[in-house]
Design brief:
The protein is an all-alpha fold. It has one domain (59-291): MetI-like fold (Orthogonal Bundle), CATH 1.10.3720. It is built from 13 helices and no strands. α4 runs antiparallel to α10 (197-225). The longest helix has 36 residues, at 256-291. The protein is globular and about 75 Å long.
């Protein structure tokens, strides 16, 4: 019978602290995220009059401003995500598969674009399409009119345009990574068999891009739900989203309990979308393994 192999003391000393390697990140997560989240949840059930109840939820849900903000948040987020997916897929196709001068430079610029703050893009659009922007200036200079025709940035359409412009690179980045791993031989074989470009995109490229589209689209949807700077800097009248409502209740109205209720609803929406994304990606990955 073989004798058990003795474990050196040095290996034992290295193994023992490994159990505690998770403690620092867990403690940091609890301090930075979980503790403030718990405070928000606690404040949402702590009315100003004292005690604890869900009366604040009933009051907030009964307000027309909350229902309008919820509707605006969902519609703008879904519309911006759909626009970013379509535009990002088209631009990623062009950059990845259409040879043209400066294609690699544009791909690198996308990485830089991801670091820009959202309000910077909104300011750029204001300089172009604002009431005193370049487009209106060219129009009035050419026609002699008192005002230009571009006056949509202060409407929901302006918010939608700004969010699509800002979030499209978040869709393009994972798509470009997926396209770089796509075997060009598949495209050559499909083309040699007589398939036209739309069919190649639909039957060869799109199935490979679906996981990246799902990842980019879910990220954009969650970020749109929580976007504050774009809505604020466009100055869109009557376009109140949940983050803007949290700001107005807490800062302007001094209703911290109501602000926490709206924040909890916003968090619940984000978590629900994340759970849906995980379910869809798991199912898609299972289907891909089954086909393989």
């Amino acid at each position: 019978m073989a004798e058990p192999v003795a474990v050196p003391d040095a290996v034992r000393r290295r193994r023992f602290p490994a159990r505690f390697l998770l403690l620092p990140p867990v403690a940091a997560l609890g301090l930075v995220f979980l503790h403030p989240l718990a405070l928000v949840l606690w404040q949402s059930v702590s009315p100003n009059g004292g005690g604890h109840s869900f009366a604040a939820y009933t009051d907030v849900f009964a307000q027309a401003a909350f229902r309008d903000a919820l509707r605006n948040t969902v519609l703008i987020a879904v519309g911006a995500t759909a626009g970013a997916l379509v535009l990002g897929f088209f631009l990623a196709l062009v950059i990845a598969f259409v040879p043209f001068p400066g294609g690699k430079a544009i791909g690198r610029f996308i990485d830089i674009f991801l670091s820009f703050p959202s309000f910077l893009i909104t300011l750029a659009l204001l300089f172009v399409y604002g009431s005193t922007g370049m487009a209106n200036g060219l129009w009035t200079g050419a026609t002699g009119a008192a005002r230009g025709p571009f006056d949509f940035l202060h409407t929901p359409w302006g918010v939608l345009l700004a969010e699509i412009t800002y979030f499209t690179p978040f869709v393009m980045r994972p798509l470009l990574g997926a396209f770089s791993q796509l075997e060009t031989a598949q495209l050559d074989v499909a083309a040699s068999l007589g398939a036209r470009a739309p069919r190649i995109v639909r039957q060869v490229v799109l199935p490979e891009a679906l996981p990246s589209l799902a990842a980019g689209g879910s990220l954009v949807l969650v970020m749109c739900l929580n976007e504050f700077g774009i809505v604020l800097f466009t100055g869109a009248k009557g376009v109140t989203t949940l983050p803007v409502l949290v700001h107005s209740k807490a800062i302007l109205d001094g209703d911290y309990t109501g602000a926490c209720v709206v924040a909890v609803v916003n968090i619940a929406l984000s978590l629900a979308l994340y759970g849906l994304y995980r379910t869809l990606t798991t199912r898609m990955e299972g289907d891909r393994r089954a086909r393989a």
